[in-house]
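Self-study notes.
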Amino acid sequence: MAGHGAKEHPHGADRLCEAGDRVYSRAVRRGRVARTDAEPVPCLLELALLHPDPDDMEWLVPTSPQEVMTRLLRGVYDEVSESQRRMGSAVAAFEWYAGLGRQLNTLAAPAEGSAIRVLDGLSRIQAAMDEATEACTTEVLTVQPGGIRREAELTEGLHRALELRGRGVRMRDLYTHVARHGQGLLNYLELMGDAVEARTLDEVIDRLILFDRTVAFIPANSDRTLALELRHPALVEYLVTVFERLWRLAIPLTAPLPDTGIEGISHREQSIAALLAEGHQDAVIAERLGISVRTCRAHIARLSETLGAASRTQLGVRIAQVGLDGSRSGALTVPDQGSPTVL
């Protein structure tokens, strides 16, 4: 039956077939569905959306929609995390090779149309960006890491953005959630109107700018005085894929951040808890979320108070117990200080 289902229903839980949608919806409404009713849609069993009722094997009970959503988001998050890791390795490799080239004094002016160009110095980077802006006709995709954007940063590229808007080019920008609190960004988006669509995530990859899905710019060192201009189709396509996956996970700037479902814990504290559970230090967490170390530690202190943790070790245990590490859906209640955990 599994093989037959895979052929007749080639899809995942994120895109049910029409028959599967009807049967699963009915099972959720009624609490269970007869096994015979589910035989035409074996995909529901294969995807673990239905499973046998232990009290009566002739019936199937549904997996809760909340658990299915958690499973889907975890899968996408793992894919994006792997993409981020691979992109970081690629950037490190490019920087290493570029360093070898400079040592050998072979970085002569590249030929026109080179697949990878090393742009050394801010003036050269700006000139290359202006050239790409002038040639752009359709779309610009950007990832802007860090926290609240400074007015100087926004003003720096404003002339390019206005030029693109004037030609009808559409722009999509990804920021961290922290950027929502910057008035400069809100003013910029109001000025640009419907030419720009912005979304936010807890954390994003390093800076990325893509023009017409044909040329990309990424930093090549930590202070961004070196950049790579990429025109190799495979590299650019890979970066577009990374952007699109992050975009699907991101939340529109006009929409509120989702509630954590745990009283007293904010969305940002939930993000910090997940990174703490991965073993990251305060400085790393702050950098990834675009906040200061001081702000990060203030949130950690509030997390400890809310979860009733007297030490970092105990905080890690509490985070796992309430599901803030992403491994559970929050089946346990948040304990009061000094009280036992409620199962």
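Second protein, same conventions, sequence then structure:
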Amino acid sequence: MSRDKVVATAEEALADVRDGASFAVGGFGLSGIPSVLIQALYRTGVTGISVVSNNCGVDGGGLGVLLAAGRIARVTASYIGENKEFARQYLAGEIEVELTPQGSLAERLRAGGSGIPAFYTPAGVGTPVADGGLPLRHHPDGSVALASPPKEVREFDGRRYVLERAITTDYALVRAAKGDRHGNLVFAKTARNFNPLAAMAGRVTVAEVEELTELDPDEVHLPGVFVRRVVVLTPEQAADKGIEKRTVRPA
């Protein structure tokens, strides 16, 4: 029988994290982000970390908290978006950023968790994604200090494809609606975005779950073999979900 993977607190789940560690982090915008684990990671005081996530949170929320504190050294993402501090640090040369197409990022995480070292995709062929030259880091004056190298491109059946490397990280932080003591997880609606993929890519995956329960095997989205530690949220923590954009109309 699988062992019990529940730990008492988020702090205990991250007690072995050290400076310079790499993290795959689930979520899309603020949807499905492991906010309790991110706050616990902030409280550890670790710095110089690398983050792989669709985006880097928002100003003052999600991974944006770590970013504003200067804890993140490198980000692999598909979107800088509306996080002004993220854009400022990137353009000022304070952080290294690898931008990658969103679908390629998802597949790089999945491949890493599946033991596939690399794969070919048509996404990015004929652009700096494949040809190189994307700014990874800027000088403070805005000029390019480090650019991405060219990637291998091959032709299959008359179409060109670029080779993308898989991603694995030291840790993965994810959030699930339901989980059991063995680490099996169920994600709710749009929160089932990058969470399963990030969980697969981490060597040590920590999941915060809104509800600890027994799961029918047929409802499991991510099997517990990918999850090392489970943190059960309080009702208050489970209900605390940010809204990235609030749109209202007259009653």
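Instructor comment on the second fold: The first strand starts at residue 6 and ends at 7.
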